[in-house]
Each structure stands twice: as structure tokens, then as C-alpha cells.
Amino acid sequence: MEGLWLFSVALSAAGAIGFICIILVLRWVLYFRKGLAWDGGAAEFNWHPVLIVTGFIFLQGIAIIVYRLPWTWQCSKKMMKFIHAALNLVAFIFAVISMVAVFDFHNAANIPNMYSLHSWLGLTAVILYCLQLVLGVGIYLIPATPVSWRAAFMPLHVYSGLLLFTSVIAVALMGITEKLIFALDNPKYKDSPPEAILVNALGVLLVLFGALILWIATRASWKREIFMQSNFNMNQINRIPVTYINDFQTRYHIIHPRREPLTFCTICK
Amino acid sequence: MEGLWLFSVALSAAGAIGFICIILVLRWVLYFRKGLAWDGGAAEFNWHPVLIVTGFIFLQGIAIIVYRLPWTWQCSKKMMKFIHAALNLVAFIFAVISMVAVFDFHNAANIPNMYSLHSWLGLTAVILYCLQLVLGVGIYLIPATPVSWRAAFMPLHVYSGLLLFTSVIAVALMGITEKLIFALDNPKYKDSPPEAILVNALGVLLVLFGALILWIATRASWKREIFMQSNFNMNQINRIPVTYINDFQTRYHIIHPRREPLTFCTICK
């Protein structure tokens, strides 16, 4: 069930749905709203959904699963870490610019900032994402950081990353709800005009994109496989020292790699 | 880091936050809104947030982590499955009643049904939750179902359960956003009256509750530990037949049980 073909289907679906989301958000702001500009008006606000969908959701999603892409497994782990960090950094920059656009728009129109649940959770997500980025770079890209720290921090890094990604999608859905209620008038949101249907569909597709990314990211058998090195290989697997498990408080998965002889092993770090 | 004390802290925090959420939603509808009734009016609508928070979020969260509670580990697996299913069934019933309340209110007030993204995703979540419940009972509670089916379906069951739980919280956050925008008038939502602050805080606590449940549910070392039986025990762990792994396409985790001798092992099924 978890073979390469299923991975390809899930990856293709995620890519296609993410791409459609970007098309839909552009269609929304360019066709139904006042386009894109940087003038403090509604067209500046429109950068907010565009940058959130393209950067904070799509790019972040790709950053999460970049280790899973089989054609990257020949790249060094260090290279993949840099790509993972770079994609997350771009996503973060997109998120910050998108927030500046909203604050500019609110200030120009004398609308209070930070009153809604959407704004509370959104700002919290951006701050925690920044913290995750700084900690991730400090722990996984600075060579001096002990390997034991990396292993110990990994469960929290993975959990926080997936939780933040999920939260960002939830916050986006709240933002869509807010915007449609405020912006649609004659016909209203409750009259289901074409704009409402299009943006509701965007929301549904964002959920599907998130669900696929989370599925890909959490399948153990789709993890980047690395040769067992140093004191780990399949001949020695029966002699894993218990003290090693104790020391690093980590888990070792003996998995059945897809359609390949048992010469690989996945280690959670 | 993943010891019993941390589990206790996470569990206590989840319980306390879940309890506060129930208090806040009751405070919202009883103090700021028109209380609870079943008359087709606003007081009937108020059952919607109350039943969603108490049933579809709190009870579902408890149902998810019920296997993790150490004082239940002496109970039989079958008993725990019944408790898990029963809690989910009650959560589902609460969700259905809460939806009936909304449809009644909408129909009485001539408000269209099913126009918002909140309603689209909410109804989808309830339908999929029902499907998850039916499949779960069919596969894990009917004795005739082959063990191999149970093992094969488990990754999807776990993933779907956690995704649905997360989605329900996201949909609740959208519902809170909608309700505050529609219901608050003079002062409006943007003026941040006490009701808005209270319900925003409820939204933040729902996210924290969800984050804690997901953390507890996804820690491998907090899984229900079972004695290795039949052909599995720690003396035989080095001789796990590869064919067994192939056949069931499942993963075997050799973990370090917390502060206990290595006489237990967790098996993912």
C-alpha cells in the first residue's frame, strides 16, 4: 500500500492541488477583487491571501516533504537541510510581507489591528514559525551542535513543524471566512455568489493539500533512507546496545523498505 | 524527556484546558447570548457551539488518547476498544444534534443553509467521522475481521482520526469567527468587547487542547504497552522473521520503556 506508486500519486495530487490553490487565489484577487498593488488600499490587502497561499502554505508544504522526494536521496543530507531551511525561510518572508500588507491596509482605512481570533492565531503562528526556523538552523545546520542534541530535539522539531503547518491552514480558513463576510455585499456571502463558491472551493482545496502533505510526511516507509553507518548496519542490528537507546531516548524502526532487500534501515534523526 | 511525569503534565494540561473550554463556551451562551433552549431561535442555535466543544472536540480528544492512560493498561484491549468506540459514538451524536440545532435556527430565521466554508467543511467532517466510526467498528470490534486487515488498516485509521480531530477544531475556529462577526453589533467585533475577548480566548484554548492531544497521541513511547506474547518476547526480538514483516507490512518499534526493565515492547497494531 505504501509503495513508490502510491507515493507518486500522493505527491502528484499534492502538487496539482497546491498549484490549483495558487491559481484560485490569483483568480480571486485579480478577477473578483481590485487586483494587486502596494498603495495602502484594498489592492495592497490582496497581497495577504496571495502570499499566504503561495508562501506560507504551498512553499511550507513543499519544505516539509522535500526530504521524501526519492530523486533527492542521492543528495547529501547537508544539502537537503539547506534546501529545507531555504524553503522555510522564503515561506517566512512571504508571511511577513503578507502581514505588512494587512497592517498597511488597516491603518489606511482606520480599521483596528489584532482584534480577531484570526489575527491572534495568525501572528502567534508567524512568531512560532520564526522560532522554529531559528532553532532548526541552530541545531541542525551549525556543525558544533552535538548529535545527541539533534536526536533529542527531532521529535519536537517534527511535531512543531507539522502543527504549525496545520495551524497556518486553519488560520487561512478563518481569514477566508472573515474576508468573504466583510467583502461580499449585494449579493452577500449567504447568497452564494460565484466569488463565494470559488473561495469556498479554495478553502476545501487548501484542506486537501494539507491532508496530503501530512500523509506524505508521516508515512514511516517514505522516509529518506540512509545507509547504516558507523556502528549501525543490518548485520549489527541485533546488537543495538540498550545504553545507546537509553542515552539518546530515540526510536529505531526496523522497516521493510519498499521492494528492496533489507540492506537499508531508517533511523529517526 | 518522554517520561511518565511529562505525560502526566501533558494529560493534566489537556484535561484542564478542555474543562476551561467547556466553562468558556457555557459562559458565552449563558451570559452573553440568550442561553439554551429548543425553540428554533437563537437559544437553540447556542446548542451548536456547546455540543461541538463538549462533544465533538473534548470527548473526541479524550477518545483519541484513552489508550494512552496508564491506569487503563491493565484493562483488556477489547474493553479499551469499546470505550474508544463509545466515546467517539457519543461525540458523533453530540455533533449531529448540534447540526440539527443550526438547521432549525436557520430555517426559522430564513437564513440559507450550507453556503459558508464553515458549513461545507463541517458537514464533510461529520460525514467522514461517521464513516471512520463505521469502519473502525467493522474492522476492530467484529471478531471475524482478519488480523492482517486490522494491521493494514491501522495507519489509515490513526491518520484519519487525527486529521478529523484537527479539522473539527479548525472548523470550530471558523464558526467562532462567523458567529462573532454576525452577532456582535454596537460594539462590533472590531471594537473588541468583552464577549469578543472571551470567545477569542476560547479559540486559543481549543488550539492548545488540540495541540496537547496530538502531542500525547503521537509520542511512540507513550503507547499502550503490551506484553510480548506468542512468538514475540524480548529474548526473541533478534529473530523477528522478515516474512512476518513483509506479510503484515507493519512496523515494529523497539523502544525504551520509561523507567522499566526491557520486558515490554510496543507493537503497532
UniProtKB/TrEMBL annotation, chains A, B:
Q: Give all residue intervals belonging to the Cytochrome b561 domain.
A: 13-218
> Which UniProt keywords are given for this protein, alphabetically ordered?
Cell membrane, Electron transport, Heme, Iron, Membrane, Metal-binding, Oxidoreductase, Translocase, Transmembrane, Transmembrane helix, Transport
| Coiled coil regions, renumbered to chain | none
Which cofactor(s) does the record list? heme b
Xref: Pfam families: Cytochrom_B561 (PF03188)
Q: Which chemical reaction does it catalyze?
A: Cu(2+)(out) + L-ascorbate(in) = Cu(+)(out) + monodehydro-L-ascorbate radical(in) + H(+); monodehydro-L-ascorbate radical(out) + L-ascorbate(in) = monodehydro-L-ascorbate radical(in) + L-ascorbate(out); Fe(3+)(out) + L-ascorbate(in) = monodehydro-L-ascorbate radical(in) + Fe(2+)(out) + H(+)
Name of the molecule in the record? Plasma membrane ascorbate-dependent reductase CYBRD1
